[in-house]
Design goal:
Layout lengths: L3 E7 L3 H10 E7 L2 H11 L3 E5 L3 H12 L8 E4 L6 H9 L4 E3 L5 H24 L19 H5 L7 H15 L5 E4 L6 H12 L5 E5 L5 H9 E2 L11 E2 L1 H5 L3 E5 L6 H13 L1 E2 L8 E2 L3 E6 L3 H6 L5 H7 L4 E2 L9 H14 L12 E2 L1 H9 L5 H15 L4 E2 L8 H8 L12 H15 L4 H8 L3 H10 L4 H18 L13
Parallel strand pairs: 1-2, 1-3, 3-4, 4-5, 6-13, 6-14, 7-10, 10-13, 15-16
Antiparallel strand pairs: 8-9, 11-12
This protein binds adenosine-5'-triphosphate (ATP) and magnesium ion.
The site of adenosine-5'-triphosphate has 17 residues, from α8 and α16.
């Protein structure tokens, strides 16, 4: 369970105090607003839990006075099971970060705490690295997409602890004399991006060359890597310089190293140990000065156990591996929005729409956050580009988020047709509209904005599907358990046009 250093509880209720005890290493209680303010001034809390029984106006009064002592510290209002959406909206309007409707929402607190922790982690990182990070001299300045100057200089988007740890490790490894360097991560997680970051940090003005070990036959790969002398094999009618030599004092990226034929693995190991090599058919030793970076989307340990990868080479590579977390891992959830907005801002797929499609609706972001991302960041980038191409308004709504069905079936291993089993477009549309209405407390303008449709369209759809306020709430209660599944993006029929 996640925890924070200090939580202030403004409540007389022991249940709320106990809740805070579960998540805070130090919990400060106040049963009136004057005491609460005094505590806030001195305790420097990470989170404040505020009992709704003090009512929204008291909250406002407290918020106004406490705000100057709080550096963006979230205040979460705690209501009870009977509190309605209006009260929740009122607290949020007054500045509450969120409103928990009693026990049934207590689980949300864990998510809120994770967000706070990641935020604290990012701020620590920025504070600690501002002066020592690279000042790239380029036009790329640190902005809201990056965790610090280093991240900006190598274009690595993300503020989660997972990304920050990767950046820290990349910096440590690049500034050491570590060679070879191993980068492990699923497809599309940014292995090449990190390899280029290492190169930029270590020797930016030297050559960067890359070879995909899965793309060539054993013989071709060998002569690609080492080069060959004229006449060394049929067809070798000219001398060839290999990539190891071309990389010179720069970087050679061996992509998909797990696919390298086993004989060639032995030859590579020799290069790593002796720092010299010979061209195919050659007799002269050539010095290897390059930084060798190997990347793999397979677990190399498993490959060793299956006798597909040499154990000695694995140990030689695995000194300080850099591991990239998949986008679906819970600690990277906050990166999804950031990456989506970054790709929206920087995509060149449709220059005429560059400044026209400006943002994503909340529903679209939620849908992105729920997807599994088997293709990781590359897949997310593709989804955003597809959405930009199709978008006709200034905002990408849920209907613009079209996941490639083949990518979904790849991860689940199930046939594509399974995706739409038990679903009709109408059912999905009705449920989405109901949910948007419920989440906005039936404020139709907000609901329409969430869905990325006009109010008029929303009215027409509400009428068409006969969605009623009470039936909607009732339905949502009975559906609560299945909602997660029903609204997961991979279970939606594609495309879902709700305009
Ligand atoms: N954190 C990130 N910030 C910005 N862009 C990213 C990030 N991670 C990945 N990308 C982008 O996603 C795409 C895929 O990244 P990259 O090619 O480095 O992945 P990979 O792990 O090498 O994939 P593969 O295993 O398929 O070769 C690239 O366009 C890259 O720029
Ligand atoms: Mg790659």
């Amino acid at each position: 369970m996640s925890s924070l250093k200090k939580i202030v509880v403004v409540s007389r209720d022991t249940e709320i105090q106990c809740l805070a005890q579960q998540y805070g290493r130090e919990v400060f209680g106040a049963d009136n607003l004057t005491d609460a303010l005094d505590i806030v001034k001195t305790a420097d809390p990470d989170l404040i839990l505020f009992d709704h029984r003090f009512n929204p106006n008291h909250f406002r009064e407290f918020f106004d006075k406490a705000d100057k002592y709080l550096d963006d510290v979230p205040i979460v209002a705690i209501g009870d099971e009977d509190s309605d959406n209006e009260l929740s909206d009122e607290f949020k309007k007054m500045g509450a970060y969120d409103y928990l409707q009693g026990r049934r929402d207590y689980g949300k607190l864990e998510q809120i705490i994770n967000v706070i922790k990641n935020h604290l982690c990012a701020s620590d990182y920025q504070a600690g690295h501002k002066t020592e990070c690279l000042t790239s001299g380029s036009e790329v300045n640190t902005n809201r997409f990056f965790a610090g100057n280093l991240a900006a200089s190598v274009s690595i988007v993300g503020k989660s602890c997972a990304v920050i740890n990767t950046l820290k490790m990349t910096k440590i490894v690049a500034e050491s004399r570590c060679n070879p360097i191993l980068i492990i991560g699923e497809t599309g997680t940014g292995k090449e991006l990190v390899a280029r970051a290492i190169h930029t940090l270590r020797h930016p003005n030297e050559p960067f060359v890359a070879v995909n070990c899965a793309a060539l036959t054993a013989n071709l790969l060998e002569s690609e890597l080492f080069g060959h002398v004229k006449g060394s094999f049929t067809g070798a009618d000219r001398e060839k310089t290999g990539l190891l030599e071309l990389a010179s004092t720069g970087t050679l990226l061996l992509d998909e190293i797990s696919e390298m034929p086993i004989d060639l693995q032995a030859k590579l190991l020799r290069v790593l140990q002796e720092k010299t090599f010979r061209k195919v058919g050659g007799i002269r030793n050539i010095e290897c000065k390059a930084t060798i970076v190997a990347s793999s989307n397979r677990n190399l340990n498993n490959e060793v156990l299956a006798n597909r990868f040499r154990r000695d080479l694995y140990y030689r590579l695995n000194v300080s591996p850099i591991t990239l977390a998949p986008l679906r891992s819970p600690e990277r959830k906050e990166d999804i929005r950031l990456l989506a907005e970054y790709f929206l801002k920087t995509s060149t797929i449709c220059p005429e729409k560059r400044d026209k499609v400006k943002s994503l609706t909340q529903m679209a972001i939620e849908a992105l956050e729920k997807h599994d991302w088997p293709g990781n960041v590359r897949e997310l980038s593709n989804v955003i580009e597809r959405a930009i191409l199709l978008e006709t308004t200034d905002k990408i709504g849920l209907s613009g988020i079209i996941i490639d069905p083949t990518e979904c079936s790849w991860v689940s291993g199930s046939p594509t047709t399974n995706l739409i089993t038990g679903f009709s477009l109408a059912k999905a549309e009705r449920e989405l509209i109901s949910r948007a209405l419920q989440e906005t407390g039936w404020q139709k303008t907000r609901a329409a904005a969430l869905l990325g449709i006009t109010r008029a369209t929303l009215y027409a759809k509400v009428k068409q599907y006969q969605i009623e306020k009470d039936s909607c709430v009732e339905k949502n209660l009975t559906d609560a358990k299945t909602r997660q599944k029903d609204f997961s993006i991979s279970s939606m029929p594609r495309p879902v046009a709700i305009r």
